[in-house]
Amino acid sequence: MGPLSLDSEIAASAARLRAAFKLKLADAVQAAGALAVGADALVTHDRDFSALRDLRVLGVADKNPPP
């Protein structure tokens, strides 16, 4: 799968997610896009997605934490 176009349905979904879960705009767009394509999961370093129940979110463990 290639890049996903941000259409009006994804934008509207992102706006609803942002309002409902107080997500940052970029996070809301990522979540809306993942939901739109029926992604199995969203891989992220963010914790902002913890409230989303309709999307499986996989956190990436930092293998080189700062000292």
Largest sheet properties = 2 strands, parallel
Please state the average pLDDT score: 85
Number of helices: 2
Q: Can you tell me the number of structural domains?
A: 1
Brief sketch in words of this structure:
This protein has 67 residues and is mostly helical.
Outline the structure in words.
The chain has 67 residues and is mostly helical. It has one domain (8-59). The protein contains two helices and two strands, in the order H-H-E-E. The protein has helices at residues 8-21, 25-36, and strands spanning 42-44, 57-59. Strands 1-2 form a two-stranded parallel ribbon. Helix 1 (8-21) crosses helix 2 (25-36). The longest helix is centred in the N-terminal third of the chain and has 14 residues, at 8-21. The radius of gyration is 13 Å and the shape is globular.
